[in-house]
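chain below, 267 aa
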Amino acid sequence: MDINKFTTPALDFIRQNRTLFTTTTALLALGSAIPLLSRAAADYRAWYALGENGLPLNLFGYVFQSLARAFARSDTRVPVPYDNAALARGKWYGPLSQRSFFPGPVPRRRGERPTVPDFAGPHRQTTQGASAEMRDKQEAFLHALAAANPSLIEVKPSNLEGPLFNSVWVREGAAARRPELWNLNREFAHPHGEGSTHMVLTLVDSAAAIEAGWAERHRMSGVGVIMPWNFIMIYAPRDDEEFRVWKEFMRASARYVLGGETEVVMP
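prediction:
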């Protein structure tokens, strides 16, 4: 079969109607691109609505987190997605990560978990946020915790979120820095504007908090050495009882980063 008998007339027809074919191809390409552009625009608006954070609140910040999103983890609500025994033997986490500094069993959080978008950053909840009164209580507690432990803890602007939020830091020289926290410097907890709080707990307390519905890991936790496995987000407290539990998580975080043997006074 001579295929040229079929292709030659077809090519001649295309050449004679080049404008028609060019326009049709362009329209088909545009029709395919519009849904993609629409989804990208909606995703950008959702990210922008989360507000000021440690990334620039513009297209550059969005693109940066989008690139990180490709490597981010999706198992943030699985209590133990890692080899716990191996981490306990390693130099980064070690035996201290297997202790609990929460006073007793972690109670189960009532109700459903809040909605947390799957952006690599910022990591925020968009439902069940804290009231303005509760946020004032959280801020007051940061300062009260530092005042009750003046040689151990200080309040400074967050190293991870820029000057947007206050955070609690281990004072210089107060304790040896936990090796898995090398890139967090001495900061161990910071609340966000909607009341959720990033903090570092032991692997045991992190898993218990996630299991009981109080927390989830950051999407970059456990991705290489970007963030440690035990960098988690405790959801915003909704009432005084949840605020009490939140304070116990804060104290447990402080005890862990201070080496486990140093007493931390609860204000």
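The beta strands are 153-157, 166-170, 187-191, 197-200, 215-217, 231-234. Residues 18-48 form the longest helix (31 residues).
thats it, cya
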